Amino acid sequence: MDTTGYTAAAGAPSVVGIILVVVGGLIVVGLLVWAVRLGIKVMHRESRTPRGGEHPTLPESGPVHETQQRREPDEVPRAEDTGRRLSPHELGSPGSRRSEDQDRPRWDEGSSGSFGSGGPGGR
C-alpha cells in the first residue's frame, strides 16, 4: 500500500491550498462589499422625495379633529322576549350607540378615587 499521498497531505500545508483559501476569502469579501453598495443604492432610491399625489392631502374643509363621546352597548335580546334561545349568528355584531348622557363621569366629592386604599377618603 502506497501512503505517500497521505503523508504529503498530512505534512506542511501546500502553497496551492493557501492560495485557494486566500482567493476564496477575497471572493467572499468582494461579494460582501458589493452587497453593501447595492443596499446603499436601493436605500437612496427608496428614500427620494415624494411626487405630487403620492401622499394624502388635507380635505378642503381643513384638518379633521378628534371627537369625544360616550358610548353604550346595544342590549342583547333576552330569551323570554323571543320564546326561544338565540343562535350566535342571530345576535349580530356587538355594536354600540351614542349614549344619551354625554357628561363625563367624575369621582364623588371628597373621595380618594381608589379602592381599598385604607384611607378615610376625606369624609
Task: Provide a concise account of the structure shown.
The chain has helices at residues 4-10, 15-46, 79-82, 88-91; strands spanning 71-73, 96-98.
- Radius of gyration using CA atoms only: 38 Å
Q: How would you classify the helix and strand content by structural class? A: mainly alpha
* Strand order within the widest beta sheet: 1-2
Share in helix = 25-40%
Q: Count the helices. How many?
A: 4
Number of E-state strands:
2
Order of helices and strands: HHEHHE
**Largest sheet data:** 2 strands, antiparallel
Describe the oligomeric state of these chains in a short phrase. Answer: single chain
Mean pLDDT: 78
Give the overall form.
elongated
**Which residues sit in consecutive blocks of at least 5 with pLDDT less than 50?**
none
Beta-strand share of residues:
under 5%
What can you see in these coordinates?
By secondary structure, the chain is mainly alpha-helical. The chain is built from four helices and two strands; from the N terminus they run ααβααβ. 38% of the residues lie in helices and 5% in strands. A two-stranded antiparallel ribbon has the order 1-2. The longest helix has 32 residues, at 15-46. The termini are far apart.
Write the layout of secondary structure elements.
Elements: H1 4-10, H2 15-46, E1 71-73, H3 79-82, H4 88-91, E2 96-98
Antiparallel strand pairs: 1-2
Keywords:
123 residues, mainly alpha, two-stranded antiparallel ribbon, 4 helices, 2 strands, 5% strand
